[in-house]
């Protein structure tokens, strides 16, 4: 299990800016955060038949409702960083349905790799 921070505002599809730089920077930071969190979790290579189930759990920072397709679109840079750390191609990830959990101060994204409930 990998615990990450709440996705930055520029990663959400409804974010608008006059410049592409906020999103570019947020993508870079999210990928690096996922990479280092995966390395710190010391997950071994999850091999098998090449299919890796991945479960994402969003714990929002407030009680506003979250749109599931918007949540799923924020996952790409995190999955890229996790794949880099594991040394696999992220095309082998099979995302399971997203879970939106309880409110947590500051928000949190938890990614479970391999055995998914």
From TrEMBL:
Gene3D superfamilies per the UniProt record, alphabetical: Holliday junction resolvase RusA
Name the record gives this protein: Crossover junction endodeoxyribonuclease RusA
EC class name: hydrolase
SUPFAM superfamilies per the UniProt record, alphabetical: Holliday junction resolvase RusA (SSF103084)
InterPro entries: RusA-like_sf
Highest rank taxon of the organism: Bacteria
Keywords: Hydrolase
Listed EC numbers: 3.1.22.4
GO MF: hydrolase activity
